[in-house]
Each structure stands twice: as C-alpha cells, then as structure tokens.
Amino acid sequence: MKEFTPQQIDALSRLVSVDRFSTGQSNRELHLHDISAHRGVLPAGVIWPVATSEVSQILKWCYAQAIPITPWGAGTSTEGNPVPTCGGLVVDMTRMNQILAIRPQDLQADVQPGVLRKELNRRTGAHGLFFPPDPGADATIGGMIANNASGIQTVRYGATKDYVMKLTIVLPQGQVIHTGCTAPKSRPATT
Questions:
Q1: Are 52 and 95 in contact (CB under 8 A)?
Q2: 94: closest CA among 125, 77, 75, 73?
Q3: Of 96, 104, 111, which Cα lies nearest the Cα of 164?
Q4: pLDDT by residue (tens digit) across 104-135?
Q5: Disulfide-capable partner of 140 in 73, 98, 164, 173 (CB 3.0 to 4.6 Å)?
Q6: CATH number, domain 6-92
Q7: Do domains 6-92 and 99-180 have the same CATH topology?
C-alpha cells in the first residue's frame, strides 16, 4: 500500500484528533527506519494514539480494511523491529508516555508503552528503585517488552520479561485483553 485513499484518510482522521494523524512525507520518512541498517517500505501514514481505546479502534478499523500495521516506539531498535515492511500505517506509541502509578512498597510501576526507560528510572529513582534492563538506548518500555530487551546488566538482573507482571494488550481485531496480575509470585516453581 503506497497511499491512503481520501476515504481512508477521512476515516483515520476521525479516530484521533487532527494533529495525531499524518500522511505528510516527512513524518512518513521519519518512521521508515530505526537505528539498524534495515530500511522499510514507506508507510502510507502515521498515527499517534494516546489511549488503549484509540489503539483498539485503530487496529479494528485497519483489520477490517486489510491495512498493515507497524507499531513504533523510540525507533532505537538495532534489529529493524519497528520498520514497516509492507507500508500501511505506523502506530507511533510515543504519546502514550504516562507513568500511571509507582508503588514503591510493592516494587511496582504501571506505565503506558511509550514511557522511556530513562524517564522511568528517573521517577523510580526518587524512591530508591530502578528498572534494571538496559539495552543501551533510551528505548520505550513497550518496545523493550516487545523485544524482551536485555543489555549489560542482564547477567545480574535478568531481561525485561523478568520485570513484567501484567499487560494490557490490543489484539489485531481490536479486542483488548488483560494478562497477569500485580500479585508477586511467592512460591518457587516446581519441576
């Protein structure tokens, strides 16, 4: 898919506020590659949701229209993960960047996927805590989860998956599901 039709542009423009959807060349080119050597196919547009409900509506509409979707975080991947390979729509998660709660007594934080790793550590650091996975770049937490990011502290602290207890996930048809819980595991695994 090279370009959206006027009807598709109109439909996508109604899913978010006017300043959060673009078919502009510069925005599309900014989402064509990450820091890897991989280059993608120019997307037809970029959209910036700010809530799970918007992500759900975007995915539901795109699924019905058979429009390829590529999620985008900070664009710091070294593997080409956020690179659109079929054009379509890039869903840029960087405006879903809220730290919803920090519960130091539980060693937990609730964050949206666009929260940057360094910002999470700055905010949790005020409580004497930190989020150990360090892929080297200031990646988004959503991107780190999607890639199970690790880094220089993995041997000591583990990878991103070791710090995820609960997720809200939007499936391709727009269905929202919730997995996990905030209750820490209190019993060792048995074999």
A1: no
A2: 73
A3: 111
A4: 999 999 999 999 999 999 999 999 999 999 99
A5: 73
A6: 3.30.43.10
A7: no
So where are the chain's domains? 6-92, 99-180
In 3D space, the residue among 185, 51, 169 whose CA is nearest the CA of residue 108 turns out to be: 185
Nearest residue to 78 via CA among 31, 145, 139, 119: 139
Task: Could you please state the CATH topology (level 3) that the domain comprising 99-180 is classified under.
Answer: 3.30.465
What is the per-residue pLDDT across 1-43, written as a single tens digit (0 to 9) for each?
Answer: 689 999 999 999 999 999 999 999 999 999 998 888 888 999 9
pLDDT digits (tens, 9 = 90+) for 85-99: 999 999 999 999 999
DSSP the chain: --S--HHHHHHHHTTS-GGGEE--HHHHHHTS--SSS---PPPSEEE---SHHHHHHHHHHHHHHT--EEEESSS--SS-TT--SS-SEEEE-TT---EEEEEGGGTEEEE-TT-BHHHHHHHHHTTT-------SS--BHHHHHHHT---TTHHHH--GGGG--EEEEE-TTS-EEEEE-SSPP-S----
Is residue 185 very low, low, confident or very high in pLDDT (cuts 50, 70, 90)?
low
The structure's pTM equals: 0.91
CB 34 within 8 A of CB 75: yes
